[in-house]
Design brief:
With about 80 residues, the protein is mainly beta. The protein is about 0% helix and about 30% strand. The two termini are about 20 Å apart.
Length: about 80
């Protein structure tokens, strides 16, 4: 099957995962409940897979838009 640029891309992200306490899902945030000063990893999956090589995270802190953060794809 050939995929074209016109096909839509779905981003799957579940900040708290499926709720498994001892297993981190690819599409969740780590730590699940960050506090000030924590380094945070934002996990996500794309559907169809292998379509996104780079990502820009647009985020808000205390109601204020923050500069986008660039990211990259990691192998499973």
């Amino acid at each position: 099957m050939t995929k074209t640029a016109s096909q839509s891309l779905t981003i799957l992200h579940a900040p708290h995962g499926a709720g498994a306490h001892y297993f981190v899902e690819m599409e969740e945030r780590v730590p699940r409940d960050p506090v000030g000063g924590d380094m945070v990893t934002i996990g996500f999956l794309t559907k169809p897979g292998n379509r996104g090589a780079e990502v820009a995270l647009h985020w808000v802190r205390n109601g204020r838009q923050q500069p986008p953060i660039g990211g990259r794809a990691l192998a499973r």
